[in-house]
Amino acid sequence: MTILTWRPTLSGSDVDDIENLLTAAERTDGTGPVSEDVRLTLRPGLRVGTGRHLLATRAEGAPAAGAGGLVGYAHLGGVPAERQAEIVVHPDHRRRGVGAALATALTATAGPAPTRLDVWAHGDLPAAASLAERLGFARSRVLFQLRRPLAAGPPLPLAEPPAGITLRAYRPGPDDNAWLAVNAAAFADHPEQGRWTLDDLTRRHAEPWFDPNGFFVAERDGQLVGFHWTKVHEVDPMPPAGGTADPIGEVYVVGVRPGAGGAGLGRALTLAGLGHLRDLGLDSVLLYVDEDNDRAVRMYSALGFSTYTRDVSYRWTGSAQRSRSDVP
């Protein structure tokens, strides 16, 4: 029997159990089981907006899982009308109804009012697709992970911004509000990136990987009009089969304020960041981009990137099972 418990915040032992679960899943699946957004909420006592944690534990006497008996975990985020979720099941407890129980509990968050629920499956694994189909979820969004070699790949063109545009390093604090405004404008139609708040930004400033020297901003007449934020992973989160988990760079996010940058600014910002990562001695770089973002996919392909993996979002298409007031 699986026991489900909703938590608005986590204890230190909860966080440890969840991290152990994520590690076990990643070793088995070869892909990170949750997004960075979810990992940043795994802090004792931290409450983030309307986010909730759903813990699945084994009943007493059931086969043991990890420490604390945690056999599954789900995170529910977003706003009431547009929910995003992620689900992970311990590898030793799959095909026992744990994933279905977690997914069913998530669908119960949809009340009589129109509510969208999207659940991410990282790595586009067949088991996730099968579960989604059985529970009435439809494949709705695909996120490509693209990669490009830096050391052995084709030479990088020079980063040449449009006339009147200058590039410089980001200044944490003084540039925060201007960056948030450009990010919101550049990703106005994006379900996650365009909703970033100052809290979202400052939490990342506190991460050990944050480096303002790898965060480029573009200015025209003293106004911020674009940016390229790079990231360095000390260990490749998804090394190729038979490969080693060497450090790898990431095109973390590139954005240009619509109508303010000039033709070619996104490309110039991308190249500035790639040159920075190359000069750090990294062998390769990854990035994430939506499958239907044709313009970005074409630009990255022209710069030598190719598809490495896919993540899939499944949208709930069934009917609500109980009212929203029943969900803590």
Q: State the low-pLDDT regions, or none.
A: 320-328
The shape, in one word, is: globular
Largest sheet: 12 strands, mixed
Q: Helix- and strand-based class?
A: alpha+beta
The gyration radius over C-alpha positions equals 21 Å
Helix percent reads 25-40%
Number of strands: 12
Order of helices and strands: EHHEEEHEHEEHHEEEHEHE
For the biggest β-sheet, the strand order reads: 1-2-3-4-5-12-6-11-10-9-8-7
Instruction: Specify the number of helices.
Output: 8
Whole-number mean pLDDT: 90
How many angstroms separate the termini? 21 Å
Strand percentage lies at: 25-35%
Question: What does this 3D model show about the protein?
Answer:
The chain is α+β, with helices and mostly antiparallel strands and 328 residues long. It has helices at 12-29, 36-39, 98-107, 126-134, 176-186, 198-205, 265-279, 294-302; strands at 2-7, 52-58, 70-79, 82-89, 116-121, 137-149, 165-169, 215-220, 223-233, 248-256, 284-290, 306-316. Strands 1-2-3-4-5-12-6-11-10-9-8-7 form a 12-stranded mixed β-sheet, with helices on both faces. α3 (98-107) links the parallel β4 (82-89) and β5 (116-121). The longest helix has 18 residues, at 12-29.
Could you list some keywords that capture this structure?
328 residues, alpha+beta, globular
Helices and strands, with pairings:
Elements: E1 2-7, H1 12-29, H2 36-39, E2 52-58, E3 70-79, E4 82-89, H3 98-107, E5 116-121, H4 126-134, E6 137-149, E7 165-169, H5 176-186, H6 198-205, E8 215-220, E9 223-233, E10 248-256, H7 265-279, E11 284-290, H8 294-302, E12 306-316
Parallel strand pairs: 4-5, 10-11
Antiparallel strand pairs: 1-2, 2-3, 3-4, 5-12, 6-11, 6-12, 7-8, 8-9, 9-10
